[in-house]
Predict the structure.
Amino acid sequence: MAKDAEVRANTEKCKGCLTCEMICSLVKTGVANPARSRIRVSAQQPGQITIQNCDGCGICAKFCVFGALEVVQI
Ligand code: SF4
Ligand code: SF4
């Protein structure tokens, strides 16, 4: 089934807390392991965000208290 949403980052708002990595990996793999997250935030440069294989579930956006992530319909 084709996905109908994806998450997008507002890089200027990102503070590098890595909550999104923890919650994505936990929900998608059952283990809180940032290395397995579909969203990755650079430790050196918080606003540098890579998103791969995202299914648009939006859980990471709900947990980003800085409002740096949003789900968009595609
Ligand atoms: S996108 Fe949000 S949850 Fe993820 S590291 Fe940045 S501020 Fe934290
Ligand atoms: S929207 Fe879902 S799959 Fe995509 S990065 Fe966020 S938690 Fe992971």
Summary: Residues 19-29 form the longest helix (11 residues).
